[in-house]
Write a structure and sequence with these properties.
Length: 126
């Protein structure tokens, strides 16, 4: 009987210790589609230049950190701005353009110091 209690106690302790173990789960790398692949080490690339409500983009940086994405209208006025944290390498993001009227726009990627890392154009259509 004492041996059985000892065995149950060992099993119970093992279960508790195993259940409390923190697994380090790393995020799976994002698969980059052909239309978003970039050969340069830094920049921004849109999936398509013709946008209705949203467009996928690849923001690529050499180091992890904070970047700002700015959308400029044809008068070069900032109409949208978003700051986000990115990892080194490819970062797949979406830009939502529902609030923008149909027109031509430029979208730029800037580092934390305001240095332009990349820029590209798109057309908002309905």
């Amino acid at each position: 009987m004492a041996k059985m209690k000892k065995t149950l106690l060992i099993v119970l302790i093992s279960t508790i210790l195993t259940g409390c173990y923190k697994d380090d789960i790393l995020p799976a790398p994002q698969a980059i589609s052909e239309d978003l692949k970039m050969t340069s080490s830094v920049g921004i690339k849109l999936q398509t230049a013709f946008v209705t409500s949203e467009v996928a983009m690849n923001v690529k940086t050499e180091t992890a950190g904070t970047v700002t994405i700015r959308i400029f209208d044809i008068a070069n006025k900032v109409v949208s701005k978003e700051t986000m944290n990115v990892v080194a390498g490819d970062n797949l993001l979406k830009v939502y353009t529902n609030a923008l009227p149909s027109s031509a726009y430029r979208i730029g990627l800037f580092d934390a110091n305001g240095k332009q890392l990349g820029i590209t154009d798109f057309n908002k259509i309905n």
